[in-house]
Description:
Layout: H1 6-27, H2 32-46, H3 52-59, H4 62-76, H5 85-96, H6 100-110, H7 114-138, H8 159-182, H9 186-205, H10 210-228, H11 230-251, H12 253-272, H13 277-294, H14 305-314, H15 330-356, H16 362-377, H17 387-412
Amino acid sequence: xxxxxxxxxxxxxxxxxxxxxxxxxxxxxxxxxxxxxxxxxxxxxxxxxxxxxxxxxxxxxxxxxxxxxxxxxxxxxxxxxxxxxxxxxxxxxxxxxxxxxxxxxxxxxxxxxxxxxxxxxxxxxxxxxxxxxxxxxxxxxxxxxxxxxxxxxxxxxxxxxxxxxxxxxxxxxxxxxxxxxxxxxxxxxxxxxxxxxxxxxxxxxxxxxxxxxxxxxxxxxxxxxxxxxxxxxxxxxxxxxxxxxxxxxxxxxxxxxxxxxxxxxxxxxxxxxxxxxxxxxxxxxxxxxxxxxxxxxxxxxxxxxxxxxxxxxxxxxxxxxxxxxxxxxxxxxxxxxxxxxxxxxxxxxxxxxxxxxxxxxxxxxxxxxxxxxxxxxxxxxxxxxxxxxxxxxxxxxxxxxxxxxxxxxxxxxx
Length: 414
């Protein structure tokens, strides 16, 4: 067998890595196992061709350095964690994905076409899921190994993940529709506008997450600011957000049910102590805030949340039913594990990504929406630590920062 020349072999390896990266993005809305497999394949393909000096330089840049330090701090925190070995491993593993950010930025920066292909693949994948969501609502589809069917219209994974993917897809399609309009591509305008309408209709009438409903006006405001500027965009965005909320409230019984159920759950918990989803969250926030106050600097170590709460049970200050390893708030989870130092690094990472994606290119606009969605969702869920939402953030931020840099460089060079 004749060995391939090194440049040819390297190019084929790069193309294979590109395909694996696109498969990660395509599988994210659908399958945790599929995403894990493609991640492993991508790493096996991309690591052998990585320039480690360039990777180290990238890791020192602001979009990567705070993520890496947060990961290192979390790994170090196992030394003072009182959690079980598996809890410690889970705590470190939840943030280990952040190490991929500099590697992904470096890879996408070398492959100029990859970001555009990633957007197409993401829209195709989420559109296919949206179609299946409508189909599964109209006809009865049995639960299988591939289709979880947790609720009508939620064929895979859960409604939180589905809502997050559909929101970003609608946001991206709205920008594509506006860009097509400025170029007088009327057929594309109709197509992208139709996608936006289909995604929003799905959120209105199927099974939106309550966190997702709170993020909608935030993304509407962001969209307006990006399209028409900060001053006018803020005013028009706020007005549009209020009108959109009123319209959704009046036209969608499903949205009214989701909002009213949250209010009812809080009332039932506060008056009768009844176990409800919203009530549990309030108790977790209260208890973990108190625990953070007792160990504010370095927290309780990776995987130490459950052990700390079990200590409160033994002391008789907490009912055993409230013990959890996840308080469903990203800042509180980070504070519990790595203290205010970790929270500071988390905020610095979000700020660095926001600054890196503050440009006017399509990639920057979509990437900033992913960052804002993660920050807003972090008030009610630990999205960065969750598998699906966390990898959505890492892949989205990594790809869009690389693409935004490339676009900024092209613009600067004329």
